[in-house]
Protein backbone atom coordinates (compact mmCIF):
# COMPACT_ATOMS: atom_id res chain seq x y z
CA UNK A 1 0.00 0.00 0.00
CA UNK A 2 1.54 3.34 -1.03
CA UNK A 3 2.01 6.03 1.61
CA UNK A 4 -0.20 9.07 1.26
CA UNK A 5 1.79 12.13 2.26
CA UNK A 6 -1.22 14.48 2.08
CA UNK A 7 -3.61 13.71 4.96
CA UNK A 8 -7.30 13.25 4.19
CA UNK A 9 -8.37 16.19 6.34
CA UNK A 10 -6.10 18.48 4.29
CA UNK A 11 -7.58 17.21 1.04
CA UNK A 12 -11.04 17.91 2.44
CA UNK A 13 -10.00 21.41 3.56
CA UNK A 14 -8.59 22.29 0.11
CA UNK A 15 -11.81 21.06 -1.53
CA UNK A 16 -13.94 23.15 0.87
CA UNK A 17 -11.78 26.22 0.28
CA UNK A 18 -12.19 25.88 -3.48
CA UNK A 19 -15.97 25.50 -3.10
CA UNK A 20 -16.14 28.63 -0.92
CA UNK A 21 -13.91 30.60 -3.28
CA UNK A 22 -16.28 29.94 -6.14
CA UNK A 23 -18.80 32.13 -4.28
CA UNK A 24 -16.33 34.85 -3.25
CA UNK A 25 -15.31 38.11 -4.88
CA UNK A 26 -12.17 38.73 -2.83
CA UNK A 27 -10.00 36.76 -0.40
CA UNK A 28 -8.87 38.04 2.98
CA UNK A 29 -5.87 36.07 4.19
CA UNK A 30 -5.10 36.53 7.91
CA UNK A 31 -1.53 35.86 9.01
CA UNK A 32 0.32 36.22 12.31
CA UNK A 33 2.56 39.28 11.79
CA UNK A 34 5.22 37.72 14.03
CA UNK A 35 5.55 34.62 11.83
CA UNK A 36 3.93 35.39 8.46
CA UNK A 37 5.35 32.48 6.49
CA UNK A 38 4.82 29.92 9.23
CA UNK A 39 1.18 30.95 9.70
CA UNK A 40 0.45 30.78 5.98
CA UNK A 41 -1.05 27.90 4.06
CA UNK A 42 1.74 26.98 1.61
CA UNK A 43 -0.85 26.15 -1.07
CA UNK A 44 -2.82 29.41 -0.82
CA UNK A 45 -1.28 31.07 -3.90
CA UNK A 46 -2.19 28.09 -6.09
CA UNK A 47 -5.67 27.80 -4.58
CA UNK A 48 -6.54 31.50 -4.77
CA UNK A 49 -4.96 32.19 -8.14
CA UNK A 50 -5.47 35.75 -9.39
CA UNK A 51 -8.46 36.62 -7.19
CA UNK A 52 -8.20 39.99 -5.46
CA UNK A 53 -6.63 39.39 -2.06
CA UNK A 54 -6.11 41.36 1.13
CA UNK A 55 -3.32 39.94 3.28
CA UNK A 56 -3.86 40.95 6.90
CA UNK A 57 -0.85 40.88 9.20
CA UNK A 58 -2.58 40.55 12.59
CA UNK A 59 -0.77 41.00 15.91
CA UNK A 60 1.37 43.72 14.34
CA UNK A 61 1.68 45.28 17.79
CA UNK A 62 3.66 42.20 18.88
CA UNK A 63 5.85 41.90 15.77
CA UNK A 64 9.22 43.50 15.08
CA UNK A 65 8.34 46.95 13.64
CA UNK A 66 11.55 46.96 11.58
CA UNK A 67 10.58 43.75 9.76
CA UNK A 68 6.92 44.53 9.03
CA UNK A 69 7.56 46.79 6.01
CA UNK A 70 9.83 44.11 4.55
CA UNK A 71 7.12 41.47 5.04
CA UNK A 72 4.54 43.73 3.40
CA UNK A 73 6.77 44.23 0.37
CA UNK A 74 7.60 40.51 0.10
CA UNK A 75 3.97 39.40 0.42
CA UNK A 76 2.64 41.92 -2.09
CA UNK A 77 5.42 41.60 -4.62
CA UNK A 78 4.53 43.14 -7.97
CA UNK A 79 0.95 41.89 -7.89
CA UNK A 80 -1.78 44.50 -8.34
CA UNK A 81 -4.47 42.13 -7.11
CA UNK A 82 -2.89 41.97 -3.61
CA UNK A 83 -3.07 44.54 -0.83
CA UNK A 84 -1.37 44.14 2.57
CA UNK A 85 -2.35 45.75 5.86
CA UNK A 86 -0.90 45.51 9.38
CA UNK A 87 -3.45 45.39 12.20
CA UNK A 88 -3.92 44.49 15.82
CA UNK A 89 -7.35 42.99 16.34
CA UNK A 90 -6.79 43.24 20.09
CA UNK A 91 -6.03 46.98 20.18
CA UNK A 92 -7.97 47.98 17.05
CA UNK A 93 -4.85 49.42 15.41
CA UNK A 94 -5.35 50.03 11.66
CA UNK A 95 -8.83 48.46 11.47
CA UNK A 96 -10.10 51.45 9.42
CA UNK A 97 -7.28 50.80 6.91
CA UNK A 98 -8.28 47.14 6.71
CA UNK A 99 -11.87 48.12 5.94
CA UNK A 100 -10.78 50.72 3.38
CA UNK A 101 -8.47 48.31 1.55
CA UNK A 102 -11.19 45.63 1.51
CA UNK A 103 -13.64 48.12 0.02
CA UNK A 104 -11.12 49.11 -2.68
CA UNK A 105 -10.54 45.47 -3.62
CA UNK A 106 -14.30 44.84 -3.70
CA UNK A 107 -14.77 47.78 -6.05
CA UNK A 108 -11.99 46.48 -8.31
CA UNK A 109 -13.41 42.95 -8.41
CA UNK A 110 -14.77 42.57 -11.92
CA UNK A 111 -17.45 40.18 -10.69
CA UNK A 112 -18.47 42.21 -7.61
CA UNK A 113 -22.13 42.06 -6.72
CA UNK A 114 -23.00 39.24 -9.09
CA UNK A 115 -25.20 37.58 -6.47
CA UNK A 116 -26.94 40.75 -5.42
CA UNK A 117 -26.57 42.34 -2.03
CA UNK A 118 -22.99 43.43 -2.60
CA UNK A 119 -19.69 41.61 -3.05
CA UNK A 120 -18.64 38.68 -0.87
CA UNK A 121 -15.30 37.95 0.79
CA UNK A 122 -13.77 34.63 1.75
CA UNK A 123 -11.75 34.95 4.95
CA UNK A 124 -8.79 32.66 5.51
CA UNK A 125 -8.26 32.70 9.26
CA UNK A 126 -4.86 32.27 10.83
CA UNK A 127 -3.92 28.58 11.03
CA UNK A 128 -7.13 27.54 9.25
CA UNK A 129 -9.17 27.19 12.46
CA UNK A 130 -12.41 28.03 10.70
CA UNK A 131 -13.75 29.25 7.39
CA UNK A 132 -16.27 32.03 7.03
CA UNK A 133 -17.90 34.09 4.32
CA UNK A 134 -18.64 37.72 4.94
CA UNK A 135 -20.10 40.65 3.06
CA UNK A 136 -17.78 43.52 2.21
CA UNK A 137 -20.80 45.79 2.38
CA UNK A 138 -20.92 45.30 6.15
CA UNK A 139 -17.35 46.58 6.37
CA UNK A 140 -18.68 50.04 5.69
CA UNK A 141 -20.48 49.89 9.03
CA UNK A 142 -17.23 48.71 10.59
CA UNK A 143 -18.50 45.21 11.30
CA UNK A 144 -17.89 41.90 9.57
CA UNK A 145 -20.94 39.62 9.70
CA UNK A 146 -19.94 36.05 9.18
CA UNK A 147 -21.85 32.99 8.12
CA UNK A 148 -20.72 29.37 8.28
CA UNK A 149 -18.74 28.30 5.24
> How is the CATH topology named?
Rossmann fold
Q: What is the topology, as strand order, of the major beta sheet?
A: 3-2-1-4-5-6
How many domain regions? 1
Described by strand count, sense and barrel closure, the largest sheet is: 6 strands, mixed
Which CATH class applies here? Alpha Beta
Q: Calculate the mean pLDDT score and round it.
A: 75
Figure out the total of helices.
Answer: 4
Distance, first to last CA: 34 Å
Q: Please state roughly what percent of the residues sit in beta strands, choosing from under 5%, 5-15%, 15-25%, 25-35%, 35-45% or over 45%.
A: 15-25%
Radius of gyration equals: 15 Å
**Order of secondary-structure elements:** HEHEHEHEEE
Number of DSSP strand runs: 6
Helical fraction equals 25-40%
How does the helix and strand content classify structurally?
Answer: alpha/beta
Shape: globular
At CATH's second level, what is the architecture? Answer: 3-Layer(aba) Sandwich
Superfamily (CATH H level) name? P-loop containing nucleotide triphosphate hydrolases
Low-confidence stretches: 126-135, 139-149
List keywords for this structure.
149 residues, alpha/beta, Rossmann fold, 6-stranded mixed sheet, 6 strands, disordered C terminus
Describe this protein's structure.
By secondary structure, the protein is α/β, with parallel strands linked by helices. It has one domain (8-148): P-loop containing nucleotide triphosphate hydrolases (Rossmann fold, 3-Layer(aba) Sandwich). Helices cover 28% and strands 20% of the residues. The chain contains 4 helices and 6 strands. The protein has a 6-stranded mixed beta sheet with strand order 3-2-1-4-5-6, sandwiched between helices. α2 (44-48) links the parallel β1 and β2.
